[in-house]
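Subgroup meeting minutes
Present: P.N., E.W., G.H.
Scribe: E.W.

1. P.N. recapped why we're keeping a running log of single-chain structure predictions: easier to compare across weeks, and new members can see raw inputs and outputs side by side.
2. G.H. added today's entry (157 aa).
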Amino acid sequence: MKIKLLVVGQTNMKFVEAGSYEFFTRLKHYTDFEMLVIAPPKNAAKLEVAELKNKEAENILAKIQSSDFVVLLDEKGTEYSSVEFSAFLQKRMNSGVKNLVFVVGGAFGFSEKIYERANSKLALSKMTFSHQLIRLIFAEQLYRAFTILRNEKYHNE
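Output recorded in log:
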């Protein structure tokens, strides 16, 4: 199974970039993983929120195939423990999903177009995190999930 992480916009936080890279590198040991940065719309700062979210949706949808299983990282999603999240991944692998795509939206979240396309929604916490910081938190949890599935010691260190 191939796993993609789609994120809107570059991060300007060097520690997020460095930490994410560390876990993305580790993930390659377990799965075919790729992170794609989706450029924000031109003149994003001048757009109304609804228009911005719709333009971001167009850019996101252009990177998603009809056969992809799409999971939004969204505050309205299902919360899992790390062990439950690893089971979620295992279930996707067992069901024959070829491409599992996780999506981090922009600062204002997702448009309805994206919610309609999603197969699932995942909340990493009841707390709100920066959409930039989420990529690091998610990368660590994805790595942790694979170590759990392999019964490796990282989860309990």
